[in-house]
Amino acid sequence: MKTEQLKIAKAISFIGHPLLTMPLFVAVMMFVFEDFEKALLNSALIIGCIFLPLFLRMYIKSRNGTYTNFDVSDRIQRKTLFTFIIPLMIVVTVISFKTSAASNFSLSILFGTILVFISQIINLFVKSSLHVSLNIYLSALVLTADFRIGIAVFLFSGLIAWSRVALGRHTWNEVIFGYCIGLIISATMLYAEGFINQLTKQ
Question: What's the N-to-C CA distance of the chain in angstroms?
């Protein structure tokens, strides 16, 4: 592959990294749609208890050689990533429900946790792309707030899939698995959200 194409692939992969897109989305959505105190609390819960510890772990282990790279592209190495992140997500999910957070917010965390858990199971056989699955899921979350931006994020996920293959991080089979996981969990989450909203209106 040409050097220019690799540079573009690296840029797309970096911009589409879940550790960048997900916390950015959380912060923006919280401060746009919630009052300042609730937005600060929810953002701190998600970013401080999930994304910050995950970033530090990935950075340290990629620096000391435990992980081959920051993306943890090795399927065997990725097992320890799942065992680290899933308990954190479960704790945050429980806290969000216990503190009477907005149902949509709590559901988003719950289904995000389910997505990662399913990815862990799939990882026993295929290293599905978390870049792709999490950004597909992100597009569904954005869709509920702004349809056009949600569609744009969904389409951008196609470029992310290409970048992951171009960089040798995944095969097309693995990014397709990521797409399927992201789509199934997103559709289920949107259905559950709509169903609960209907019940609360009655």
Answer: 57
User: Does residue 92 contact residue 50 with C-beta atoms inside 8 Å?
Assistant: yes
Q: Please give the model's pTM, rounded to 2 decimal places.
A: 0.92
Instruction: Report the distance separating Cα 60 and Cα 65, nearest Å.
Output: 9
d(CA 50, CA 95) in angstroms, rounded, equals 13
Rounded to whole angstroms, how far apart are CA atoms 72 and 74? 6
Q: Identify the residue whose tokens are 């680290």.
A: 84
Q: What are the tokens at 103?
A: 């149902």
Q: What is the pLDDT of residues 73-84, one digit of tens each?
A: 899 999 999 999
pLDDT in tens, 32-47: 878 888 888 888 989 9
Rg (CA), the chain: 17
Q: Which amino acid is at 162?
A: W
In the structure encoding, which two tokens stand for residue 138, read together?
Answer: 């992100």
Neighbouring CB atoms inside 10 A of 99's CB total 12
- Read off the tokens for 35: 């009052």
